[in-house]
Amino acid sequence: MKEFNDLLDNYTEGKTLPQEFYTNENIFSEEMNRIYFQKFNWLMVDHVTRIPNPGDYFLFNVEKESIIVIRGRDQEVRAFYNVCTHRGSRVCLEDEGSKKLLVCPYHAWSYDTEGNLKAARYMPDDFDPKQSGLRPCYIKIYEGLIFLNLTQDQPINFDDFIQPLKPMLDIHKTSKSKIALRKKYPTAANFKLVLENFSECYHCVPQHPELCSIHEKDWVYTMGGGVGTAPKKETDEYLKKIEPWVEDCKKRGLPTETYLETNEFREKGFSRYADRTPIGNGHLSQTRDGTPASTLMGTFKEFDGGLTQTAFNQFSICYFTNDFGIMFSFKPQSISETEVELIWLVDQNAKENIDYNVDDISYIWHTTTLADTRIIENNHKGLMSRSFEPGVLSKTETGITYFYNWYFNCMNISR
Ligand code: FES
Ligand SMILES: [Fe+2]
């Protein structure tokens, strides 16, 4: 891809990307094809409790694609491209609902909840409706989490993909949780600026006083952007300091091994991550005052004040405290629009306004994400200026360079 390579010549390691990476429509289109719709990109999109009954569905909309995720009469959750097999109209127009039949709003072809075409008027005698069901999209359910893969090819094996993340994920028993709250943050910015923002915590002290008052200062500095994104000396000091907490976790049979993507898999486009650290400051949860906001979730018998960070890829991430989880999705809509969605999970038996209330569980990450939306949009606006030149990254923004290297690698993968 010549255009991309020409642009790459203008990139200097240790600086931000040149402007055209954020403004060139051809680049955006290639990014979607080479990254987002690639076979390695299993996206965590929602939780099964969103669609508890047969016929319940929701749409997963990203770039030009719309996917219908629907529970069939047989209770199985399936995914279909929201494209009528007659002349291509979108079939479902509302973001969510419950239907016995999916009726196309154009010529009224009707599909059942399993995607089979059930009615099409005045068709030729040799027309076989069995050949015209909705086109399926790859889907996997893991521990109640719904994953989609939008490749037009064969996706990579899901079990292989999820394997290294299982130890950290499984202790939170997402299959025994339910959705407590969902919030969307439409962000007027290129998706890379959203992901860059999530790769560093340099901005945390000035922009996220709520998050920083909960976590220990050295956690924010060394771990806020993930292990290895701050200078080694301070990171090692922090890891040494939390050793007693880690040892205690081991004694209780909890996973303590950080998963950093291996080079072998990074070269294939993977970007998985998992770690578990104490929130610190004696705090037990990510709440306004650090006290729990719901009942224990998962395998925990007591609060240990840990925070688990699990990244399935750059576009879907989960955080868990002992009492709730947050699913983050970053969905590119166009070159300058990204939808950020947060879904809060609590234990399936927790009762709203008795065991938890949504303000308490969402306070930290709602305020933090609102601030992120604001700073990312300002970043996008400023970066559009004719005067913009790539700037020098700080010592705690190595996560951004890591992100760029992953990105360059993906863009070259199938050349
Ligand atoms: S496009 Fe759907 S029925 Fe014609
Ligand atoms: Fe932030």
Automatic annotation (TrEMBL):
Transmembrane segments: none
Pfam family, one: Ring_hydroxyl_A
Keyword set includes DNA-binding: no
Cofactor(s) the record lists: Fe cation
Full protein name: Rieske domain-containing protein
Domain Rieske: 42-148
GO terms for MF: 2 iron, 2 sulfur cluster binding; iron ion binding; oxidoreductase activity
Keywords recorded for this protein, A-Z: 2Fe-2S, Iron, Iron-sulfur, Metal-binding, Oxidoreductase
Signal peptide: none
Tagged with keyword RNA-binding: no
